[in-house]
């Protein structure tokens, strides 16, 4: 799979880089070079910090997964030794030596043996500036810092690849040897550790290809230089993996290849005169293969396949996509609106609330919020904006099925007109609400979703003034 993707990348590079105007005059090329007067210092600083943080994060994860794997193996060894000491000795006798050997290898500076497009472009760009004699104003110190960060990151990524291969093979070995030994729970724990480490590593690599504004600016500026395009063709990591022949693009390079007519004749002879036209037959087969390839790609993506490694640990459990995210990444923010009609005691009001919640898993979240009740008056002839109250909220969402969720919560509401914050300090005037109902979440883009809620307040009759028990809210989270 990865070789097919790499070949497609080469084809794209040939198309893009092949557009370089080799026949341009020296004056024209120099004029285009002079349009780039400097490389933005903010871009260099931003990328350097991003790579440094990512390198540090990967190092911590590498150390953590090895430590946890050793602890899990030691736990399994002790349990197995009670029932089968000989098997425990055979399976775990050299375990410490294996981990020690791997850790010794990770102490060395490793060369990255994987093509990551975003990282390759920046790394080749730095190499270009260090070797060229261009009249471009570049902060040499920041370039050196960025170069060191890239070197460290490449080494950390390769270390992670080595660890990923090691723990994957170790998990497979333990599973094969201990499948029927009553240690299913411990094996599942190992499977989770390996799978989630694999997922984290995949997310780290995706960050390198997800260019932000400053990174895009730097890459765009560098790609404007014709000399860089030629340099990229010769010195990028992708070119090193798949070098082009010296006579590429010449008539000599085509010698020995079959012509289109000869291929058509051969296919016609093999299929017979009653078969489909050879071109139609090939097109039909290509469409079938493309459909199968897309289905396989979707399955791999769902299972957490990462670039550069087609060997994956299959989860023996339902993965929790929130598991690999940091605390801040699991925070969800929201806004919702609820309106009430005019009553004998209250004007028409709207409750506007903001919330912040924590995603425990893909199927459960909980959070807190605050609301503000604004009054609109008692009718079209008497519109008047007033502060009709505030509220404190809590909520719990549990996924039921599809995009339908069960929602519950408890709220404190101050439902009186106030002009000063001191009026809110009297706790006895706050009413209570116990809510339960259903929420429908509709995905909008990658990060937003609309929430439509229908809730019932079991304490509505105890409110003073009494409120409507059925509440309809609409909002969104991001």
3D structure, described in words:
The chain has 478 residues and is α+β, with helices and mostly antiparallel strands. The protein starts with a helix and ends with a strand. An eight-stranded antiparallel barrel has the order 1-2-3-4-5-6-7-8. A hairpin with a 3-residue loop joins strand 6 (431-444) and strand 7. It has two domains: 2-241, no CATH class; 328-477, Porin (Beta Barrel). Helix 3 runs parallel beside helix 7, helix 3 packs across helix 9 and helix 7 packs antiparallel against helix 8. It is built from 13 helices and eight strands. The model is unreliable at 1-37 and 303-308 (pLDDT under 50).
Averaged pLDDT? 80
Largest sheet: 8 strands, antiparallel, barrel
Strand content: 15-25%
Instruction: Give the H and E element order.
Output: HHHHHHHHHHHHHEEEEEEEE
Shape from CA axes?
Answer: extended
SSE class: alpha+beta
Q: What is the count of distinct domains?
A: 2
From the alpha-carbon coordinates, what is the Rg to the nearest angstrom? 31 Å
Count helical runs.
Answer: 13
Lateral strand order in the biggest sheet: 1-2-3-4-5-6-7-8
Distance between the amino and carboxyl termini = 34 Å
- How many beta-strand elements? 8
Poorly predicted segments: 1-37, 303-308
Helix content: 40-55%
Keywords: Coiled coil
Coiled coil: 44-75, 197-224
């Amino acid at each position: 799979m990865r070789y097919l993707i790499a070949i497609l990348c080469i084809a794209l590079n040939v198309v893009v880089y092949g557009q370089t105007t080799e026949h341009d005059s020296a004056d024209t090329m120099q004029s285009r070079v002079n349009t780039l007067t400097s490389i933005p210092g903010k871009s260099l600083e931003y990328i350097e910090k991003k790579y440094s943080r990512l390198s540090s994060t990967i190092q911590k994860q590498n150390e953590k997964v090895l430590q946890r794997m050793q602890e899990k193996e030691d736990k399994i060894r002790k349990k197995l030794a009670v029932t089968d000491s000989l098997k425990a000795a055979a399976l775990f006798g050299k375990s410490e030596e294996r981990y020690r050997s791997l850790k010794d290898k990770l102490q060395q500076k490793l060369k990255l043996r994987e093509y990551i497009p975003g990282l390759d472009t920046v790394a080749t760009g730095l190499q270009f500036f260090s070797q060229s004699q261009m009249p471009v104003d570049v902060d040499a110190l920041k370039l050196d810092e960025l170069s060191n960060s890239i070197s460290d990151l490449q080494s950390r990524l390769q270390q992670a690849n080595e660890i990923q291969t090691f723990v994957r093979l170790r998990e497979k070995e333990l599973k094969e040897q201990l499948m029927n030994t009553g240690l299913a729970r411990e094996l599942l724990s190992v499977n989770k550790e390996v799978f989630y480490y694999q997922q984290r590593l995949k997310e780290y690599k995706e960050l390198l290809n997800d260019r932000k504004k400053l990174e895009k600016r730097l890459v765009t500026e560098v790609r404007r230089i014709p000399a860089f395009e030629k340099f990229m063709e010769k010195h990028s990591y992708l070119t090193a993996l798949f070098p082009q022949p010296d006579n590429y693009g010449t008539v000599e390079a085509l010698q020995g290849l079959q012509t289109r007519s000869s291929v058509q004749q051969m296919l016609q002879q093999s299929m017979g005169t009653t078969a489909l036209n050879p071109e139609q037959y090939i097109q039909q087969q290509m469409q079938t293969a493309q459909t199968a390839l897309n289905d396989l790609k979707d399955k791999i993506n769902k299972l957490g396949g990462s670039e550069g490694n087609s060997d994956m640990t299959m989860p023996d459990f339902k993965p929790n996509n929130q598991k690999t995210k940091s605390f801040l990444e699991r925070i969800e923010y929201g806004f919702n609106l609820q309106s009430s009609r005019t009553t004998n005691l209250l004007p028409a009001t709207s409750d506007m609330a903001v919330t912040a919640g924590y995603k425990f898993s893909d199927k459960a979240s909980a959070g807190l919020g605050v609301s503000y009740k604004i009054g609109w008056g008692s009718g079209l002839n008497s519109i008047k904006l007033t502060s009709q109250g505030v509220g404190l909220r809590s909520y719990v969402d549990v996924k039921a099925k599809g995009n339908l969720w069960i929602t519950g919560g408890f709220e404190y509401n101050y439902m009186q007109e106030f002009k000063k914050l001191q009026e809110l300090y009297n706790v006895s005037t706050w009413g209570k609400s116990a809510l339960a109902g259903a929420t429908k979440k509709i995905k909008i883009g990658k990060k937003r979703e609309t929430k439509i809620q229908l809730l019932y307040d079991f304490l509505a009759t105890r409110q003073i003034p009494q409120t409507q028990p059925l509440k309809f809210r609409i909002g969104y989270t991001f």
